[in-house]
Write a structure and sequence with these properties.
alpha/beta, 5-stranded mixed sheet
């Protein structure tokens, strides 16, 4: 995944602010978070966690980029709800970035099966992250990775829709620039 063709492919996608992942990761490391879909309660939980991590990200000199399948207007509204309106947002309705980074789509069991029911109950009912309208691809799973100079230096790929990154572990990775 870390090669000249990979960097070239990254340069084909611009954020809502007009920057590519290549440009961002060349200037400083980037935490790239792949959301499932805009209506996903687990994604709303992730966005809230990212809001809480903003000071830690700044301390580590990590930029934040969010990849999603929503249109820019929907994404802007959702990100603003979690005070993340200034992050680099990548609208990817055709899932090209998801495919480039090999973020898998889950089976029915991995997205709505019994393994996610308890987590879904805790996330929606107990924590209040109510679901929205299901998005473009409800089987898309999430991921989070750190990209530095066009290379993935740490990653976490969800195994089911309720499987969220361990932020402490992911952010504890050694960055090549440090």
């Amino acid at each position: 995944m870390n090669s000249a063709p990979f960097r070239e492919a990254l340069s084909r996608f611009s954020s809502s602010q007009g920057k590519t992942l290549t440009e961002l990761s060349d200037s400083s490391p980037v935490l790239v978070v792949f959301l499932r879909h805009g209506g996903c309660p687990f994604c709303r939980q992730v966005l809230d966690q990212l809001k809480s991590l903003s000071a830690q990200l700044a301390e580590r000199h990590l930029q934040l980029a969010v990849v999603h399948m929503m249109n820019e207007k929907e994404a802007a509204g959702l990100l603003a709800r979690y005070e993340l309106q200034n992050v680099h947002s990548f609208s990817d309705p055709d899932r090209k970035l998801y495919e480039l980074f090999q973020v898998k789509r889950g089976s029915l069991a991995e997205t709505v099966g019994p393994a996610v029911w308890w987590s879904g109950f805790k996330t929606t009912i107990l924590s209040g992250y109510l679901p929205g309208i299901p998005g473009k691809d409800v089987q898309q799973l999430g991921a989070a990775l750190i990209l530095d100079r066009g290379e993935v230096v740490a990653s976490y790929f969800s195994q089911n829709s309720a499987d969220l990154p361990d932020w402490d572990q992911l952010l504890a990775c050694e960055l090549p620039r440090e």
